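Crash report, auto-generated. Payload:
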Amino acid sequence: MSSSPLLLLGDEAVARAALDAGISGVYAYPGTPSTEITEYIQQDPDAIARNIHRQWCANEKTAMEEALGMSYAGKRALVCMKHVGLNVAADPFINAAITGVGGGLVVAVADDPSMHSSQNEQDSRFYAHFASVPLLEPSTQQEAYEMVRAAFDYSEQLRLPVAVRLVTRLAHSRADVRTASSRPENPLQPASEPSRWVLLPVHARRNWAELTARWPSITAESATLPWNRLIPGSDRRLGIVACGIAFNYLQELFPNGCPYPVLKIGHYPIATSILDDFRKAADAWLFLEEGAPFLEAQIRGPFSMSAFPVHGRLDGRLPRTGELSPDLVAQALELPVSEGHPVPPLVAPRPPILCRGCPHADTYDFIRDVMAGYPGGRIFSDIGCYTLGALPPYSTIHTCVDMGAAITMAKGAADAGLFPSLAVIGDSTFAHSGLTGLLDAVAENSPITVIILDNETTGMTGGQESLSSGRLESMVAGLGVAPDHLAVLTPLPRFRQDNAQRLRAEIGHQGVSVLIARRPCIQIRKGT
Amino acid sequence: MRFDMIIAGVGGQGILTISALIGRAALAKGWHLKQSEVHGMAQRGGAVQSHLRLSDRPIHSDLVPRGRARLILATEPLEALRYLPWLDPREGWLVANEEPVRTMDAYPDPSALYAAIRSLPRHFLFNADALARRLQAPRAANIAMLGAASPYLPFEPETLEAALAAQFARKGNAVVEANQAVFRAARQAALQAVPSPSAPP
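Recovered output after restart:
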């Protein structure tokens, strides 16, 4: 261990550990709260000197596949994403458990309970369970470092991907972290068993049977790892199962030690032997889980009249949704909660807004001008800063569902007869998941107008490189959009009428039109 | 030693810099530290806050429990009031910037905000932006806030000034000195307004 600690975000502790564990590449698409893992590696002098792979990927699926390719070649790879990114990467993630890995492959997923910057609060533990992939869940930045470091060895030992789950309050909280010395990268050593890696049904059936046969021993042997541990307590009226950062809140409430037995969980699946021991230690269980009642539901089972009392998010002891806090855990344990002063009623909410001078605001202005003439029309939007166009003073867009859904939902609505059907999508979101949807629309010559908000960056996550920059027109043209219906506009107040006129003309076109509203994000202009 | 605080403001006001400076000072002391930040969508002009916890013993929760913050440092008067349930009702201080940031139509009357702040038993309200402008460092209002809060922080001013020097070193001496000048003037203003705040243990 190094003598002086580093001050690291949970994300940065993951990055530091992966570098020290000898990765040869990180693969990711930006997404809050995971972005800073990759950014740390991009800025780290050691990573630059070693020239490990650290460029952004088009999306989480390409990232996962590229990381799997590096693992196939024998080297260690880290792939990182936010929780909804794992939906995009689900196909290679689940199949990577069937192929297995070569070099250590660690999948760091940052969940966002309470949806601070997300459209849902899905819990990645379900995915790991579904895929039969072991998952580690750190409670502190130090543990994040140690777990990720160990996860690469674990992955190589099991020949499986290993997932590491972070949550916002760990990913985006800094603490002092002591690091260990770094080790060299793996040599190039490509896999040489096509029958493992070619997932023909004949191979996949065998691999899957092997994995499911190994799963009980992987589960049982996890008892020898340090991540799940039983901490004795004298008051056996309640046993507390504390997962991930929930363990911190429990410790906060009992600085001199918890009177109840505690089962600290950091590894899934959980060995039955540990659960049996804990069953003997307490007469009822309280589950403290950051995210979904994942374990609670499994233990509770389908029978509401269980003889063994189980408390948590499903019986109202804790809220069913949203993140935990030390105060909510205190309430669940019927401990007193201190209060400061009340918030005066005049304190109004302050939602985020587009920056002053943001090009998206000018684009929304001319779109609104045009759409005022089409009360039946709809504007399908997407994930990015421009989603704020749903709020006053813009109130311009009608939907935002997932990366890329603007174009495909506009097409589906047009298929249903909705007119006019517009899509607005950012340049980075278009590169992430817009291309295939636009291809569908081109193939059917759907009457939709797509406006690509090209601010030449990935704005909302802090200005990462957008992979469409410098090649957007050729990408759109290459998909088959007619040159007459592909134009670049400059969203500035002085072009408001011209831009509106062009949009009106394209709405009149009975086919696919793409307008690229291009002006750089003012945040990246400030930075240069 | 144990000191919990909340830094509150509007996305873009440099709250993360204040957090980073206090973090540097804590590391220089050899203390443990936890510092929870807001990234992502809220940074676009929304309400942002940072929970900061310092201790000479290991710290468990990344979040400050309610009623436990010894200090709320607010770079904006409306945001100063948003986190009052976290303020320690017996010894917590609120140090707030007067300068409103109006990002929404329903922004309250500032004089009502000032009255609410002044109704607290321990507060210091001043205009950090005006002070920074006066010293020809208009972008250093966040540093003025750090200076104004410094009498209530568990650091000697020299430790914070060293953190400033380290933080801004790569921007050159002139930037370091400008920030230190803002820090000192704001600290002086706070000490004159409230002569001897009880020193934290």
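Post-recovery validation: The domain at 229-332 of chain A is CATH 3.40.50.920 (Rossmann fold).
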